Amino acid sequence: SLTTRLPKAGETILGQKFFIGFGGKGANQCVQSARLGAKTSLICKVGKDSFGYDYVENLKKNGISTAFVGQTTDAATGTASIIVNSEGQNVIVIVPGANLLLNFEDLKRASDVICKAKVLVCQLEITPAVSLEALKMARASGVKTLFNPAPALADLDPQFYTYSDIFCCNETEAEILTGIPVGNLEDAEKVGRMLLERGCKLVIVTLGAEGCMMISVEEPIPKHVPAGKVRAVDTT
């Protein structure tokens, strides 16, 4: 839903537009990679419902392999209710649904595509233990791993840090993981160093309009990558 501003608790406001689209952190990254020319495959689970069938068709239209997109009658397709204001800021409520039914057996069936990939991207919109197992499978085969800890967990399994070649979080996630509020580049650098100490090889902290901060074991001097000036339409 698009509105001029985000509602306060208990408040009802009028919006300008409502629409249904396709998304999910893993799927968004997969679609963008495919549009940039990469050969991509999505490993996930959706419901045997109208959203699920439409979702699979949309992936196919974007040139993504759906060989390991399972469908189930045990849960509905995962959804996210999103409100975006006129400045592009948003609030999101995720209902995982079938996402949480992706399991270790599904990973075993997809082991060939995981272990032969150049890059594996994982996040936390599925059961964390399943994401972690996928990272371990990829690492064992020499596949580069990229992990986005969202939605963030304060008690994230420490193994996520050691099995992530690239660990990418935003300011909110960084604070949940480290307890350090990120209000400027110096704060982001503190977060980056702490995550390196936990075992990450390369840390990226995204900073919205300020771009991002990068720091790695090989290049321990933090690097700020500024973002170009644009008018934000939708940051989801």
From TrEMBL:
Domain of life: Eukaryota
CC annotations in GO: cytosol
Alphabetical list of InterPro entries matching this protein: PfkB_dom, Ribo/fructo_kinase, Ribokinase, Ribokinase-like
Keyword Metal-binding among record annotations: yes
GO biological process, one term: D-ribose metabolic process
Keywords, ordered alphabetically: ATP-binding, Carbohydrate metabolism, Kinase, Magnesium, Metal-binding, Nucleotide-binding, Potassium, Transferase
One MF annotation (Gene Ontology) recorded for this entry: ATP binding
Record-annotated Carbohydrate kinase PfkB domain positions: 9-236
One Pfam family hit: PfkB
Annotated protein name in UniProt: RBSK Ribokinase
Organism the protein comes from: Xiphorhynchus elegans
